[in-house]
Amino acid sequence: MDYKVQHVTIEDEFKVCPSCGYKDGFHSLLKKEQDRFKWFFICPSCHEVFDVGYTVEM
Ligand SMILES: [Zn+2]
Fold first, then answer.
1. Residue 38: is its pLDDT beyond 70?
2. Which of 2, 7, 10, 52 has the fewest CB atoms within 10 Å, i.e. is most exposed?
3. Are 38 and 50 in contact (CB under 8 A)?
4. Pick from 56, 32, 46: nearest CA to 4
């Protein structure tokens, strides 16, 4: 897969897309990284991918 990941810092909530202003939340994407997964969020409107700093242990 080829996509650009934007790093964002959550303040009170992460619901509105910083790129296009879509305001109803995000889809999820898990990407394997060594022995864990990065948890990315995808805007359903503009399809930008965001990293808010989450990692998931499996
Ligand atoms: Zn968007």
1. yes
2. 2
3. no
4. 46
- Tracing tokens 């009170």 back to the chain, one arrives at 12
* Token reading at 5: 């990941």
Strands 49-57 and 36-42 turn out to be antiparallel
Confidence of residue 1 (pLDDT cuts 50, 70, 90): low
Phi-psi map region of 8: left, alpha, beta (phi>0 left; psi -120 to 50 alpha) = beta
Does the pTM of the predicted model rise above 0.85? yes
In the structure, ligand 1 is a single-atom ion and the residues with CB under 5 Å from it are 17, 19-20, 22, 43, 45-46
Q: How far is the CA of 25 from the centre of ligand 1 (A)?
A: 9
* Every domain of the chain and the residues it spans: 5-57
